[in-house]
Amino acid sequence: MTDNLAERLRAAIEARRAALIALTQDLIRIPTLNPPGEDYLAICEYLRDRLRRSGFDCRLMRARGTPGDSDRYPRWNILARREGRGPGQCVHFNSHVDVVEVGQGWTTDPFGGALIDGRIYGRGACDMKGGLAASIIAVEAFLEVCPDYDGAIEISGTADEESGGYGGVAWLAERGFFSPDRVQHVIIPEPLQKDRVCLGHRGVWWAEIETLGRIAHGSMPFLGVCAVRHMGAVLHEIETRLIPALSNKTTAMPVVPEMARQSTININSIHGGLEEIPPGSTAFPSACVPHIARMVIDRRFIAEETAEGVRAEIEEILERLKRTRPDFDYRLRELWSVAPSWTEETAPVPRALAAAIEEALGTRATWVASPGTYDQKHIDRIGRLKNCVAYGPGILELAHQPDEWVGVDDMTDSATVMALALHRLLTGAV
């Protein structure tokens, strides 16, 4: 690739700096909270109007019947495609549009999109509306500089990645939209930092554990069986046995950050007894021994493990308690599971991005893997497309945090890398 082309692409992106800021702010200001799945249609319509101006044919598709989909919270997705002057391969930029709950500790408006000292703040700024905006600007700059390309370019905004992606990329993949005969290259602008190419991710196994007791009057707890105390015993086993064992399981995959190169478990939620009374309520709960307690666990496992082995570890804990603890009983239900995913660094997309990083940023790309799953899992296993990686602006550790932000310079640099990689992939210069 000539220096002249690289310079022209960078100049076209820098000329769109104000547009990039405004686009990112607009996306943040659409509060696409998941759960429950708010404003998916609004953000898809916004993207449709934007992409049509650049000559994209846009389809809005509702993933009816997928988890969480309802008439109140429909799972909408947008798929935009622009054909070139002649036949060729297709490069697809996929971004999820949903964001997680706001949480506590913000010093800025989480849906304000404030620009402060070169950073744009808001829920989803880093994960991953900044990446979505950067990919759109990269494509718009490419179309200005290289209008006579062959092949096709696609941009998608998809639902529910934060809750598994089943109403988004999985649904599209099941319908052939990520089949290798239709799409050959996929870049997902997740926040892995502008000089790193993410080749895959760890595995995940979510499950619900219920401990079972017997209800009785709270003044006579000896007549009942407390399910919460049973759950306390489960937590004790996890703390004293499982977590120390997991810390000794490490992977050869280049997972970032460093601590994520071991197996981990997160207690996602826990509840026992009667339904909780809202904070501040003047009502009192009734006096009962809790007969059931529920816990959801989020177990992240490395490539050297299997989902079957992960489940067996939990079952062993529960069965040991059933043998040794009086009146202990339980139910275990798997919620969902995904195996680790990996794209070889010799595949066209990582090669194109690595070359573009060196050309645009003057540094060699670093190969990494993500601690959490993202929609590569569905493109890989359902779409059967291995040529897919994550690359985008943003600092991974800011994801889901208060005062989440994305740097404007990082977005312009990443957009330049994406535009250069796009040119390489469409011309076969990889």
Overview of this protein structure:
The protein is of the alpha/beta class. Helix content is 33%, strand content 22%. Helix 4 (125-145) crosses helix 10 and helix 6 crosses helix 7. The protein folds into 2 domains: 3-201 and 341-427, Zn peptidases (Aminopeptidase), CATH 3.40.630; 203-338, Alpha-Beta Plaits, CATH 3.30.70.360. The protein is elongated, with a radius of gyration of 24 Å. A hairpin with a 2-residue loop joins strand 4 and strand 5 (119-121). The strands form 4 sheets. A 6-stranded mixed sheet has the order 1-2-6-3-7-15.
Name the CATH architecture of the largest domain.
Answer: 3-Layer(aba) Sandwich
Oligomer category: single chain
Q: How many runs of DSSP E, i.e. beta strands?
A: 16
Mean pLDDT across the residues is 96
Order of helices and strands: HHHEEEEEHEHEEEHEEHEEHEHEEH
How far is it from the N-terminal to the C-terminal residue, by CA? 10 Å
- Rounded to an integer in angstroms, the radius of gyration calculated over CA atoms is 24 Å
CATH class annotation of the largest domain: Alpha Beta
Major sheet attributes:
6 strands, mixed
Q: Which spans of ≥5 residues are poorly predicted at pLDDT below 50?
A: none
Tally the structural domains: 2
* Helix and strand composition category: alpha/beta
Strands side by side in the biggest sheet: 1-2-6-3-7-15
CATH superfamily of the largest domain: Zn peptidases
